[in-house]
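Write out a sequence, fold above all:
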Amino acid sequence: MIFISIIFGMLGGLAVFLYGLWILSNGFKKLFSRKLKSVLEKITQNTFRALGIGAFVTSIIQSSSITIVTLIGLLNAGLLSLNQAIGVMLGAEIGTTITAQIVAFKIGIYYAPILFFGLVLLFFSKNKKLQYVGQVIFGFGLVFLGMHLMTQGAKPLKEMPALINALIQFGKNPFLGILAGTLFTALMQSSSATISLVIAISMEGLLTLPAAVALIFGANIGTCITGALASLKSGISSKRLSVAQLIINIFGVAIFGLLLGPFLKIVVLTSDEIPRQIANAHMLFNVISALVAIPFVGFLVRLTQQLIRGKIIEEEKGAKFLNDNILSTPGIAILQSHKEIIRMSYIAKDMLEKSKEVLLKNRPDLIDEVKEKENSTDQLHHIIDGYLTKISEFDLAKEESEKLTLLIHSVADIERVADHADNLVEFAEFRMKNKIEFSLQAQKELEEMFKKSIKSFSLAIEALEKENIEIARCALEVEKEVNKLDESLRNSHFERLKKGICLPESGPLYLEIIDNLERISDHAENIASGIIIGF
């Protein structure tokens, strides 16, 4: 019964600690999330700078998981190279050691006023930023309360010789401690939870320093599970980042394990108290590991490329040019929206060109890329449309209002073009699956239809980019050619069917293809007409 009480007490304290850490991280995320992505995007190829930014960001938001997940998003978007991401990841592992330094303090009763002050700001302040600050303070209070509860729960362990002997074995056989720390951290998906629990137990004098250090070594390996899970449904670069993190931490633990004696002598010199020694050991391990790893980042990138093979498909997700901070200056916001729409239009154009390759040249290797880009254009359409709506709420000059209207209509047409490109890929999949063949004449006709449809759309987006009426008129001329070609191809197709040149099963698919290509040119016409009319 006493054992169950101890387990419940410590698990309850751990639950409060983890919830506090979650509240704390989310509070910091609300305060700094807009800056987090922009800060990480500005990282240069300088690995030391990347490491510094990773350490700074993670120490501020108190969550290496948020940093790693953000890195995965930036990697998928092609906004960071793997070299840069590894540098930030190394810094994140340094930044997360701040949590251990905080919990190593003997908080005592101080969690109570911290909780109260945070609660007052969180629930009674009308200012959003102050509410977020209150959430951060309240989170700290819960972290301290969780530590207090874990420490109190650990006290009865002194009366359990069997458990004490097991903990002593971790000191005598570091491999057991590393294994236990790895498994527990992988289960909790939080190295902070493992290290904080180790510190709480050490405050009651139940852990030797060698045993505690073995457990935190294991925690550094177990924490890799978060990045690994986040990368499972992500791109190749993300998987390589998670593998790089695992390699660095396993290698670091192996080296420090071999040099455990000298390392412990250094740690003992840093403080007289074991909780502080544990926090310092955790920090020293991560700082030294990161600094040693920096010169080998290039080698590590090549190694992960060998281990995780495959071609990187850049996912052009999210907006690059939009920023809520410039909404108060509508002219600049419209200019940036224009840039974002042009970027989106070139993604759609690339989809069209690749859909042609898939459909007419049997290139199934391009299917996933087109589908991924279609998801990206859907997301961009949603983001841009919302951003343009926000701009419309401001008092606009006549010229700004006209351009805003043009952009609102254009982005909808571009998104529809991307949808048609996706349709064409689906037709190609259907054709390959059912082994449908087109006659040589039909193949040539589709080539011509693709060529003119892509040309009409290309001219339309060029006219939009340059705001050029003459180019817009050229787009309209090509669109007329597409309409004539559409009618001609339908008649030609029916003639071939009568003569038995084309197989009946290919007919519906052929007509669906030219229908989608004709609609693409219709959307090009909409964009070009908007430029000429000026709305």
The CA atoms of residues 181 and 218 lie 4 Å apart. The chain has a mean pLDDT of 81.
